[in-house]
Amino acid sequence: MEPELTLDTLAPLERAEITRVDWAVLAPEEAKRLQALGIDKGARVAIAHRGIFIGKDPIALMVGRMQVAIRRVHAKAMTVKLV
Fold first, then answer.
1. How far is residue 74's CA from residue 48's CA, in Å, rounded to a whole number?
2. How many domains does the chain have?
3. pLDDT tens track for 22-66
4. What is the pLDDT of residues 3-18, one digit of tens each?
5. Which domain covers residue 13, as residue numbers?
6. How far is CA 82 from CA 14, 24, 45, 48, 79, in A?
7. What is the CATH number of the domain that holds 17?
8. This prediction's pTM
9. What is the rounded CA–CA span in Å between residue 26 and residue 54?
10. Residue 53 to residues 47, 50, 56, 57, Cα–Cα distance (Å)
11. Is-contact 78 37, C-beta < 8 A?
12. Are 77 and 22 in contact (CB under 8 A)?
């Protein structure tokens, strides 16, 4: 069995599909914002680039043709599979 990957561990431009989101670790308003942007189970995503400061925050996430900045803690709550 393959180990679970989280979105924060993807290499830049590596494509993946979100398989699970642990919404319980996110504040309700953060969860609503991410869902409104289409960042949920089944979404195909890739990391465009990461911040340059300590912690590598924020992460620029490509969702379709859109780029969204998310925090590393958000990405860590998302389990993905490579596509």
1. 16
2. 1
3. 999 999 999 999 999 999 999 999 999 998 877 778 999 999 899
4. 789 999 999 999 999 9
5. 5-82
6. 8, 24, 10, 15, 10
7. 2.30.30.90
8. 0.90
9. 21
10. 16, 9, 5, 7
11. no
12. yes
